[in-house]
Amino acid sequence: MTKALDGVRILDFTHVQSGPTCTQLLAWFGADVIKVERPGEGDATRKQLVDVPGADSLYFTMLNHNKRSITLNTKNDKGKEVLERLVKSCDVLVENFAPGALDRMGFTWERIQELNPRMIMASVKGFGPGPYEDCKVYENVAQCAGGSASTTGFLDGPPLVTGAQIGDSGTGLNLALGIMAALFQREKTGRGQKVLAPMQDGVLNLCRVKLRDQQRLEKGPLKEYSQYGEGIPFGEATPRAGNDSGGGQPGRILKCKGWESDPNAYTYFITQAPAWKKICDVIGKPEWKEDPEYATPPARLNKLSEIFATIEAWTMTKTKFEVMEICNPLDIPVGPILSMKEIAEDMSLRETGTIVEVDHPERGKYLSVGCPIKMSDSPVEVTRSPLLGEHTSEILADVLGYSAEEIAELKEIGATEAVKKLAAE
Ligand code: COA
Q: Does the structure show a pLDDT above 50 at 357?
């Protein structure tokens, strides 16, 4: 079967997480993704958080499926020449180097346009234009600068970063979307363009409800926040709201049976207004259905802590899965707090390809996250990540048309660089 991006060739100059998630998605949609890596070491994540000595790390393998790897020192003349030929042969260049790195290599936007006017140049940077545009940025910096950390955590604790990689993988998604739109526009204009996805913007985009609350706060207290019912005054900025629901339907994380020994024996419970009467029956408080103090959402707002404590007294008598089994048929929105172990063992996620098992020559079988987007006419088969430089000869010959002698010479340069580096260490 054909794939959505058959015929699209990506020059993947990305490293670490944000850029590689973007190009991995493009590869899953069928693009030919050529990952350019430094001879001898490659993407730094290959050897970060190593769990199998000598093998590429899970960090690397889980971000670089379905790609080909070519090693190239793009700072020497031969390497630059190969890179130029790749620029001419590809549709999209994706990079997430520190600001200015590509310019220093000699590949400015102007030069790239000269080489290939159809080229789409897509970049992840920490910040957009402005005071911080030259900064190097990692995930947690983006979470802090994008408004996520100041609004995550509990009121009486410090700002918190989240486990979801919203700055890296989140921005990778934005970049992939920008590339798709640019490819679509190129169909009409024949021209490439620059696509920029700053990590701060990506995080803020996901925190829009907190900017909404910042403006609502100017008009009065945020009544759906727990602190309102607890009588704690609001400050000038959107506060941390613990596990309060971010929407208009109050929700909390509540203990379930076994919470004393299982750190994930919890459920998320939402007191959605249309389900209120059923909630009252389930938790043994039928009198709350008609009591004007509890019957309407506005009346409940200053009693949320008491209400959730009563619901929790009920959830603590059930496992998180029993809570779901009882509440779902009644249309009461609840969700178990699933551990990574439970997710890894969930066979229904394997059946949909959301979690995949991949075989790797150095490390054997491992689990990875599959494509989160399912397309009926463009199925995804996840194949293992490339070894460092595994496809160098193949790409030089098939994509760029180098002869066997030229390839031998170019590979020698790569080897020399690796030897030099080892000698320097
Ligand atoms: N051959 C020769 N040199 C190469 C090369 C190759 N194949 N590939 C990369 N390099 C060089 C670059 O030219 C650059 O050299 P220079 O600084 O002398 O110009 C250097 O390797 C790598 O640059 P840099 O991006 O600064 O790496 P770093 O490890 O110091 O910083 C980040 C890492 C992630 C902080 C930084 O790249 C960054 O801020 N990126 C943008 C934001 C981002 O994506 N962050 C999230 C990462 S998950």
A: yes
Whole-number Å distance between alpha carbons of 277 and 273: 9
CA 234 to chain centre: 32
412 by Cβ neighbours in 10 Å (0-12 / 13-18 / 19+) ranks as exposed
Alpha carbon of 213 to ligand 1 centroid (Å):
37
Can you tell me the mean pLDDT for 374-392? 97
Q: For tokens 């001879």, name the residue.
A: 39
- State the Cα–Cα distance between residues 145 and 207, nearest whole angstrom: 11
Q: Is 168 a catalytic residue?
A: yes
Q: What is the pLDDT of residues 49-78, one digit of tens each?
A: 999 999 999 999 999 999 999 999 999 999
Q: H or E segment at 67? A: strand 67-71
Question: How does residue 419 score in pLDDT terms, banded at 50, 70 and 90?
Answer: very low
Distance CA(153)–CA(145), nearest Å, equals 16
Interatomic CA distance for residues 224 and 303, integer angstroms: 10
3-state secondary structure (DSSP) of residue 94: strand
**Residue of the CA atom closest to atom 30 of ligand 1:** 98
